[in-house]
Amino acid sequence: xxxxxxVVHPNPDVLAESVAARLATRIADAQxxxxxxxxxxxxxxxxxxxxxxxxxxxVRHAVDWSRVDFWWGDERFLPTGDPDRNxxxxxxxxxxxxxxxxxxxxxxxxxxGPAGDDxxxxxxxxxxxxxxxxxxxxxxxxxDVVMLGVGxxxxxxxxxxxxxxxxxxxxxxxxxxxxxxxxxxxxxxFPTINLADEVWLIAAxxxxxxxxxxxMSKPGPVQAPAAGVHGVSHTRWLxxxxxxxxxxxxxxxLRR
Length: 256
Ligand SMILES: O=C1O[C@H](COP(=O)(O)O)[C@@H](O)[C@H](O)[C@H]1O
Fold this sequence. Notes:
The protein has 6 helices and 9 strands; from the N terminus they run βαβαββααβββαβαβ. By secondary structure, the protein is α/β, with parallel strands linked by helices. Strands 1-9-8-5-2-3 form a 6-stranded parallel beta sheet, covered by helices on one side.
């Protein structure tokens, strides 16, 4: 049975430390059980903060980083190395500082990649890479953790409200006309994200408060994509107090 939880932290720094420690612990648990782990990284501002926290966290020593597969939930479809790519930012803030296995780092293609400047073709390339790492009859790996930032409009990954990608049944989708720059993106879709063991929605700041409250009021996933994701075992909302400010009082356990 799937479960859900909401944890409210006093500020973005504590949120980042908490996410970093949780992630290292979750990976260590997966490695203890299966010898390896797979995580899906998010982009955005809160990712940069918890990446930095993880690089300093003592708990990072509980993980064998060479036995972790790193995937991305979405990518801004720009040339490799562009500073606005989620991959570039994750390498600079996290992966370049840990002893990861380069063969286990799976960035989404850039617009200068083998599929060319076509986000749909690049998405199909990434779907093939996911299929190559899936088990049995699955077409994507069953990730241990998918981490997702939450946009002010309640988007997650590059699944934006009322956009065609929110209806997509293929595992990865090319996005054109995203309301947040850049307009061309690649994203995992709901069916792929929702096969993960755990899904973590991470949000900080007052700008996210309405989106978090909307998503948790159980609207449809087309209206609020953050409402359309869940882990097979657990869905975790990890918030700072400002992002939780519009939630009903019962969710705001922290009162300091
Ligand atoms: O563009 C994106 O934005 C979201 C949210 O970013 P934030 O800076 O508002 O936290 C992010 O989750 C997504 O991965 C990224 O491509």
